[in-house]
Amino acid sequence: MKITWIHVFSILILLACSIFVDAQEAYKDPSLSFEVRVEDLLKRLTLEEKITLMQDVSQPIERLNIKTYNWWNEALHGIARTGIATVYPQPIGMAAAFDQNAVFNVFNAVSDEGRAKNTCYSAQGEYGRYQGLTMWTPTINIYRDPRWGRGIETYGEDPYLTSVLGVAAVKGLQGPADRKYDKLHACAKHFAVHSGPEWNRHSFDAKDIKPRHLWETYFPAFEALIKDAGVKEVMCAYNRFEGQPCCGSNQLLIQILREKWGFQGVVVADCGAIRDFYNEGAHETHTDAASASAHAVLSGTDLDCGSSYKALAESVHQGFITELAIDVSVRRLLLARFQLGEMDDDSQVSWTKIPYDVVASRAHDSLALDIARKSMTLLLNKNGTLPLKRGGLTVAVVGPNAHDSIMQWGNYNGTPAATITILDGIKAALGKTDKLIYERGSGLVETTLLESVFNQCRSKGGPGFSARYWNNLKRNGQPDVSTRVTAPFNFCTMGATVFAPGVVLTDFSARYNTVFVPEKSGEVFFDFYVNGIVNLLIDNKEVKGVKANHGSRKMSHGLKVEAGKPYDIQIDFTYNRGDAQLLFDFGYKEEINIAKTVEKVKDADVVVFVGGISPSLEGEEMGVNLPGFKGGDRTDIELPAVQRALIKALKNAGKKVVLVNCSGSPIGLEPEIENCEAILQAWYPGQSGGTAVAEVLFGDYNPAGRLPVTFYKNVQQLPDFENYDMEGRTYRYMDEAPLFPFGHGLSYTTFVYGKPRVDKKKIKVGEHIKLRIPVTNTGKINGEEVVQVYLRKNGDVDGPSKTLRAFKRTVISAGQTVAVEFELSAKEFQWWNEASQSMDVSAGEFTVFVGGSSENERLATIEVALK
């Protein structure tokens, strides 16, 4: 074919059009920078589309190929609320390991599972809550008071330890900084001065706090995660700060976060926090959603977890905010999605190649066991009671937490493929000639125990209850699923876990039927814990019902029964809102009989009492109001009275008692020091906790955990819970002797410290020093020592008595001496400057403390001077 100028002109026109189209759709081009793509996409969005992108459930914009995205996901100590996942110890337990490398390894594995799950969900077109790439963790608030229920989510009371471990968590989650796409995004929360009480967090004003305590205690971890880890999200807190809600605080979010620290990422509001601006009984700083939302955006809050930002269109209409101001937040939100590769095809993003079989893999199981071992903290060991010696040993395992897998999971958790309870672990650890006695003995707080009669039920075709499910709310038509339940009900849709295969997650209903024939006469109690609507029918007559509108609720019903008489039992359940939940068992209740328990364990050589508390009692804004507990917080810190009484009775009967204390918070254990031969703090140790506990009890693992939080004697040692100044709080400002000090933890071997030395005792401001101390394992077995370095600026009468500035978990073989070395940089010598009202490095004399605990008697000292 002869090519004419017309052909050439046509080709040029087509090329020009192609170039023009490509230029007009730069946001689709993965070869361009994220910033260029963001600007191109931003100008294509309408105001209404921008607003929907500023809500945690971001709706799709199909004309621009923007998928729906749900920003809310959790990974506090493993991928949470989305079915099977590896469950590591609660963060307070991980903190007890004093090992930043171990924490990094855990969160690197967590991010593998998060990416694999997201890839799987996306391939199925699922973009729901807990399926995305933005993890709202870690919690780096300072655990200033042991009564705070959410302290279990933190890395303890020390700002330096929290900073180091928080940085490790963020780096593990987000992946290498030099990769084109981020692995996941982490979120530092909750900014700022947020650590209880839970019951008034929606109205509490943290005000008149001394500037020193803000900059020296509450702010450092946030600054470290921004500057040292490049965290991509920050969550603002529910409470007010100096009169303004934190999510509307220009001082916090603009002046400090963005201008002073240079944070460029996304600020997300805690869920419902914007609503608190105008809700009655909350902050009430604004009159409506339109004014509140505009104020929050102008103050730097980009994303609303909630529905308040829907009013931003009205905000613009009323002149509270301009579209250009809204663009500032949308720009950051779009950039985050590009950085994650969420706006590109999977083929462009290497992280999408992580196979799904990493989820709950053997390698991750090993990591869960490793960090659980490292978290075990031996508090007391009289006369070498531990480790226990196998061979003809009779061990009695007693206590409410001995065989409770759910307790071990903590909160904000996933569901492990398998959990080794502490009872399971001890059983597996026994020798061939050893014997085991198990007796629960008591509940956590309650003075009665339920003797279940679930095994005395039969329905058509077999034991237990017949179960029918409808994927509608009215039980219309034939059931969509029919099955059988042969154990007490434990159903919950949290983490996209269905009640039964084939049942939808929402808008479903169920009916459970059985015939109960009691073996003895008496009163039977039906106990429910429900999120949804439940009706209980006995012999076709409704006897009790409950509807939970916000969170789960308890329901109980008593029925007097005659032996041998059949009773028709029917339970109707209907989904209402949120995550559906149905826990149910029934049986006879009997008062705890301490004498009976003591008699049952009379032949034991040692009693391992597995007690403490549980995430069902302490946590985030809970409905628990039992003696010692209020709304997830604690009103005292003692071991619950029923457990204390049983331990004392065992002691009085001549038994050696080893207390394994499971808790996320410090427990007042003064009487237990007298009544127990040994105390092991096991925290909430995750899926492999039972193995880790048993290995320590029998000496297969030499413990080296250290307390990341002070264990106080009682509440009399604590200041007012609502006072955020640090005087009298934590090891840094406490004058009295605690029960167990920060950094405390025993070993089965002994370590002796030599004289610490520095390469120079006088340095110029801004220089660093090298510190070296010989540590000798003088015992007969290998062990690990956590060498801790504290500083005090001499002459600073208002400052901390000492504050952690370095630590190193070190393996030292029996009889070996290791020279443990530290480099203290200018950053470690930062101190409060009263004149400038800031943290800086300035001339002065410092005392350096080195040892295995914050306790003065265990610390060697050396003086250095900055000039």
From TrEMBL:
InterPro entries: BXL, Fn3-like, GH, Glyco_hydro_3_C, Glyco_hydro_3_C_sf, Glyco_hydro_3_N, Glyco_hydro_3_N_sf, Ig-like_fold. PROSITE patterns: PA14, PROKAR_LIPOPROTEIN. Residues 460-602 form the PA14 domain. GO terms for biological process: arabinan catabolic process; xylan catabolic process. GO terms for molecular function: alpha-L-arabinofuranosidase activity; xylan 1,4-beta-xylosidase activity. It comes from the Bacteria. Keywords: Hydrolase, Signal. Belongs to the glycosyl hydrolase 3 family. This is Glycoside hydrolase family 3 protein. The lineage of its organism: Bacteria, Pseudomonadati, Bacteroidota, Sphingobacteriia, Sphingobacteriales.
